[in-house]
Amino acid sequence: MPGETDDQKKTVMKTVAAFANGEGGSLLFGITKEYEVIGVPGANIANEEDRISDLIDDWCHRVLLGDWRSTPLLTRQASSSWRCTSRKARNRPYATGTKNVPIQYYVRHASRSVPARRTSFVALARSRPPESPPAHPFGLA
After folding, report:
1. Cα 67 to Cα 26, 49, 95, distances in angstroms
2. Which partner for 36 in 32, 102, 114, 126 could form a disulfide, CB atoms 3.0-4.6 Å apart?
3. Which pTM does this prediction carry?
4. Helices of type H across the chain
5. What are phi and psi for residue 56, nearest 5 degrees?
6. What domain range is 15 assigned to?
């Protein structure tokens, strides 16, 4: 879980942006890199989902509306684990940053979220679907 400092929040939010810039995927909370279920002590899944959602709204540039879904995995006494899943986002590229943290674009390389190089950024921008033409105000084609 992201902590309270900007560095701790950035660690999770850069991964959110990198997943959105890629093919989507799942973030597992309360599970170690070795796949051991340890839970998030004292976590209330509903409150933590709201917190993650608020962080995504605050940190991710281009809003990821409706792109993340949360699924409880395991609830033990005094701890919980869950998965947040993203589908492939449409309006790439996505970045993270705040007024205190410079905006940076990220992509996934193996199991890491890394800053996007210029070539990756250009490829992401070109992969966007074409914009729909605006509707005619009188319904005419």
Report:
1. 11, 13, 15
2. 32
3. 0.75
4. 6-21, 45-59, 118-126
5. -60, -45
6. 6-27+44-72+83-126
